[in-house]
Amino acid sequence: EAQVTQNPRYLITVTGKKLTVTCSQNMNHEYMSWYRQDPGLGLRQIYYSMNVEVTDKGDVPEGYKVSRKEKRNFPLILESPSPNQTSLYFCASKGVFQPDTQYFGPGTRLTVL
Amino acid sequence: ILNVEQSPQSLHVQEGDSTNFTCSFPSSNFYALHWYRWETAKSPEALFVMTLNGDEKKKGRISATLNTKEGYSYLYIKGSQPEDSATYLCAFYNFNKFYFGSGTKLNVKP
Q1: pLDDT tens digits, A45-57
Q2: Is residue A58 within 8 angstroms of chain B, CB to CB?
Protein backbone atom coordinates (compact mmCIF):
# COMPACT_ATOMS: atom_id res chain seq x y z
CA GLU A 1 0.00 0.00 0.00
CA ALA A 2 1.30 3.45 -1.01
CA GLN A 3 1.75 5.48 2.13
CA VAL A 4 3.61 8.07 4.17
CA THR A 5 4.33 7.06 7.75
CA GLN A 6 5.32 9.24 10.68
CA ASN A 7 6.52 8.39 14.15
CA PRO A 8 5.70 9.06 16.87
CA ARG A 9 2.04 9.98 16.42
CA TYR A 10 1.89 11.72 19.78
CA LEU A 11 4.70 13.20 21.84
CA ILE A 12 4.83 15.22 25.03
CA THR A 13 8.25 16.58 25.87
CA VAL A 14 9.92 19.36 27.83
CA THR A 15 11.65 22.53 26.71
CA GLY A 16 15.17 21.96 25.44
CA LYS A 17 15.07 18.18 25.07
CA LYS A 18 16.13 17.29 21.52
CA LEU A 19 13.69 15.20 19.54
CA THR A 20 13.31 13.70 16.08
CA VAL A 21 10.09 12.95 14.22
CA THR A 22 10.63 10.36 11.52
CA CYS A 23 8.93 10.33 8.11
CA SER A 24 9.10 7.61 5.50
CA GLN A 25 7.40 7.08 2.13
CA ASN A 26 7.25 4.00 -0.09
CA MET A 27 6.25 5.66 -3.38
CA ASN A 28 9.77 6.55 -4.59
CA HIS A 29 8.84 10.23 -4.49
CA GLU A 30 11.54 12.82 -4.98
CA TYR A 31 9.74 15.64 -3.15
CA MET A 32 9.18 15.50 0.60
CA SER A 33 7.97 18.21 2.92
CA TRP A 34 7.15 19.06 6.53
CA TYR A 35 4.21 21.23 7.60
CA ARG A 36 2.82 22.47 10.86
CA GLN A 37 -0.82 23.23 11.54
CA ASP A 38 -1.93 25.63 14.23
CA PRO A 39 -5.48 26.71 15.16
CA GLY A 40 -6.72 29.55 12.95
CA LEU A 41 -3.81 29.19 10.55
CA GLY A 42 -3.48 27.13 7.43
CA LEU A 43 -0.81 24.52 6.96
CA ARG A 44 2.60 26.20 6.90
CA GLN A 45 5.60 24.67 5.22
CA ILE A 46 8.67 24.20 7.43
CA TYR A 47 11.20 22.55 5.10
CA TYR A 48 11.07 20.66 1.84
CA SER A 49 13.43 18.44 -0.11
CA MET A 50 13.57 18.02 -3.87
CA ASN A 51 15.76 14.91 -3.66
CA VAL A 52 18.51 13.21 -1.65
CA GLU A 53 20.85 15.78 -0.08
CA VAL A 54 18.74 18.67 -1.46
CA THR A 55 16.75 20.54 1.19
CA ASP A 56 15.42 24.07 1.43
CA LYS A 57 13.52 26.31 3.82
CA GLY A 58 9.80 26.78 3.73
CA ASP A 59 7.99 29.68 5.39
CA VAL A 60 8.63 28.76 9.03
CA PRO A 61 12.02 26.98 9.31
CA GLU A 62 13.26 28.62 12.54
CA GLY A 63 13.96 26.09 15.28
CA TYR A 64 13.89 23.06 12.96
CA LYS A 65 16.42 21.00 11.05
CA VAL A 66 15.98 18.32 8.42
CA SER A 67 18.13 15.85 6.53
CA ARG A 68 17.61 13.71 3.44
CA LYS A 69 20.23 11.00 3.35
CA GLU A 70 17.94 8.43 1.71
CA LYS A 71 15.14 9.00 -0.78
CA ARG A 72 12.46 7.41 1.38
CA ASN A 73 13.23 9.17 4.68
CA PHE A 74 12.95 12.80 5.73
CA PRO A 75 13.27 13.27 9.52
CA LEU A 76 12.38 16.51 11.29
CA ILE A 77 14.72 17.48 14.11
CA LEU A 78 13.98 19.89 16.94
CA GLU A 79 17.34 20.52 18.60
CA SER A 80 15.95 22.58 21.49
CA PRO A 81 12.15 22.50 21.44
CA SER A 82 10.20 25.41 22.88
CA PRO A 83 6.51 25.72 23.83
CA ASN A 84 5.77 27.71 20.65
CA GLN A 85 6.61 24.57 18.67
CA THR A 86 3.60 22.80 20.18
CA SER A 87 1.64 21.93 17.07
CA LEU A 88 0.31 19.25 14.73
CA TYR A 89 2.99 18.23 12.24
CA PHE A 90 2.48 16.57 8.87
CA CYS A 91 4.99 15.02 6.54
CA ALA A 92 4.09 14.72 2.86
CA SER A 93 5.58 13.50 -0.40
CA LYS A 94 4.98 13.78 -4.14
CA GLY A 95 6.69 13.21 -7.45
CA VAL A 96 8.29 16.15 -9.23
CA PHE A 97 6.50 15.94 -12.57
CA GLN A 98 3.19 17.76 -12.96
CA PRO A 99 0.46 17.10 -12.16
CA ASP A 100 1.62 15.30 -9.06
CA THR A 101 -0.55 14.53 -6.12
CA GLN A 102 0.85 15.21 -2.68
CA TYR A 103 0.29 12.47 -0.09
CA PHE A 104 0.19 13.25 3.60
CA GLY A 105 1.26 11.20 6.58
CA PRO A 106 -1.09 10.68 9.55
CA GLY A 107 0.32 13.58 11.57
CA THR A 108 2.30 13.94 14.80
CA ARG A 109 0.82 15.89 17.67
CA LEU A 110 3.65 17.46 19.63
CA THR A 111 3.32 19.18 22.99
CA VAL A 112 6.32 21.01 24.45
CA LEU A 113 5.94 21.87 28.12
CA ILE B 1 5.16 35.03 2.02
CA LEU B 2 2.44 34.58 -0.58
CA ASN B 3 -1.18 35.17 0.40
CA VAL B 4 -3.74 32.47 -0.37
CA GLU B 5 -7.27 33.22 0.77
CA GLN B 6 -10.28 30.98 0.98
CA SER B 7 -13.89 31.99 1.45
CA PRO B 8 -16.12 31.47 3.20
CA GLN B 9 -14.36 30.32 6.38
CA SER B 10 -17.26 28.02 7.20
CA LEU B 11 -20.49 26.90 5.59
CA HIS B 12 -23.54 25.10 6.93
CA VAL B 13 -25.83 23.52 4.34
CA GLN B 14 -28.65 21.00 4.24
CA GLU B 15 -28.27 17.59 2.68
CA GLY B 16 -28.97 17.88 -1.03
CA ASP B 17 -27.87 21.52 -1.34
CA SER B 18 -25.20 22.41 -3.86
CA THR B 19 -22.41 24.66 -2.68
CA ASN B 20 -19.19 26.28 -3.80
CA PHE B 21 -16.08 27.81 -2.26
CA THR B 22 -13.43 30.18 -3.52
CA CYS B 23 -9.64 30.11 -3.39
CA SER B 24 -7.74 33.29 -4.34
CA PHE B 25 -4.03 33.28 -5.08
CA PRO B 26 -1.40 35.49 -6.76
CA SER B 27 -1.94 35.64 -10.54
CA SER B 28 1.78 35.91 -11.31
CA ASN B 29 4.27 33.02 -11.46
CA PHE B 30 1.52 30.39 -11.44
CA TYR B 31 2.62 26.75 -11.47
CA ALA B 32 -0.11 24.66 -9.88
CA LEU B 33 -3.12 24.82 -7.57
CA HIS B 34 -3.98 21.87 -5.32
CA TRP B 35 -7.28 21.12 -3.58
CA TYR B 36 -7.48 18.87 -0.53
CA ARG B 37 -10.23 17.43 1.61
CA TRP B 38 -9.44 17.23 5.32
CA GLU B 39 -11.68 15.30 7.68
CA THR B 40 -11.41 15.74 11.43
CA ALA B 41 -8.73 13.51 13.03
CA LYS B 42 -7.40 12.46 9.63
CA SER B 43 -4.78 13.88 7.28
CA PRO B 44 -5.44 16.00 4.17
CA GLU B 45 -6.36 13.99 1.09
CA ALA B 46 -5.74 15.30 -2.42
CA LEU B 47 -8.77 16.06 -4.57
CA PHE B 48 -7.33 17.84 -7.60
CA VAL B 49 -4.10 19.21 -9.00
CA MET B 50 -4.79 21.98 -11.50
CA THR B 51 -2.16 23.44 -13.78
CA LEU B 52 -3.79 25.06 -16.84
CA ASN B 53 -5.86 28.21 -17.09
CA GLY B 54 -9.46 27.23 -17.77
CA ASP B 55 -8.88 23.75 -16.36
CA GLU B 56 -11.93 21.96 -15.05
CA LYS B 57 -11.63 18.77 -13.02
CA LYS B 58 -14.34 16.47 -11.69
CA LYS B 59 -14.49 13.62 -9.21
CA GLY B 60 -17.99 12.32 -8.58
CA ARG B 61 -20.11 15.19 -7.25
CA ILE B 62 -17.10 17.46 -6.71
CA SER B 63 -15.65 19.65 -9.42
CA ALA B 64 -13.18 22.53 -9.62
CA THR B 65 -12.34 25.29 -12.06
CA LEU B 66 -9.22 27.40 -12.44
CA ASN B 67 -8.59 30.97 -13.62
CA THR B 68 -4.87 31.71 -13.42
CA LYS B 69 -5.13 35.13 -15.10
CA GLU B 70 -7.31 36.55 -12.33
CA GLY B 71 -5.98 34.27 -9.60
CA TYR B 72 -8.92 32.21 -8.39
CA SER B 73 -10.27 28.69 -8.29
CA TYR B 74 -13.76 27.47 -7.41
CA LEU B 75 -14.65 24.16 -5.82
CA TYR B 76 -18.24 22.95 -6.34
CA ILE B 77 -20.09 20.20 -4.53
CA LYS B 78 -23.35 19.10 -6.14
CA GLY B 79 -26.05 17.62 -3.90
CA SER B 80 -24.04 17.75 -0.64
CA GLN B 81 -24.15 14.68 1.61
CA PRO B 82 -23.30 14.46 5.33
CA GLU B 83 -20.12 12.55 4.42
CA ASP B 84 -18.95 15.66 2.53
CA SER B 85 -18.54 17.41 5.88
CA ALA B 86 -14.85 18.32 6.10
CA THR B 87 -12.45 21.22 5.70
CA TYR B 88 -11.50 21.95 2.10
CA LEU B 89 -8.02 23.37 1.60
CA CYS B 90 -6.42 24.93 -1.44
CA ALA B 91 -2.66 25.27 -1.88
CA PHE B 92 -0.73 27.41 -4.35
CA TYR B 93 2.44 25.71 -5.56
CA ASN B 94 5.29 27.63 -7.17
CA PHE B 95 9.08 27.63 -7.03
CA ASN B 96 8.87 24.27 -5.21
CA LYS B 97 6.96 25.69 -2.22
CA PHE B 98 3.39 25.22 -1.07
CA TYR B 99 1.24 28.05 0.29
CA PHE B 100 -1.99 26.91 1.90
CA GLY B 101 -5.19 28.82 2.52
CA SER B 102 -6.79 28.44 5.94
CA GLY B 103 -9.61 26.35 4.53
CA THR B 104 -13.39 26.31 4.24
CA LYS B 105 -15.11 24.17 6.86
CA LEU B 106 -18.23 22.54 5.43
CA ASN B 107 -20.95 21.07 7.64
CA VAL B 108 -23.75 19.19 5.87
CA LYS B 109 -26.82 18.57 8.01
CA PRO B 110 -28.94 15.47 7.31
Answers
A1: 999 999 999 999 9
A2: yes
pLDDT digit string (tens) for A23-41? 999 999 999 999 999 988 8
How distant is the Cα of A55 from the closest Cα of chain B, in angstroms? Answer: 11
Amino acid at B36: Y
* 3-state SS, residue B65: strand
Which long-range contacts does A38-47 make (Cβ < 8 Å, 24+ apart)? Answer: A38/A87, A38/A88, A40/B102, A41/B102, A42/B4, A42/B89, A42/B100, A42/B101, A42/B102, A42/B103, A43/A90, A43/B44, A43/B89, A43/B91, A43/B98, A43/B100, A44/B100, A45/B97, A45/B98, A45/B99, A45/B100, A46/A76, A46/A89, A47/A76
How far is the C-alpha of B39 from the C-alpha of A8, rounded, in Å?
Answer: 21
Distance from CA of B80 to the nearest CA of A (A): 24
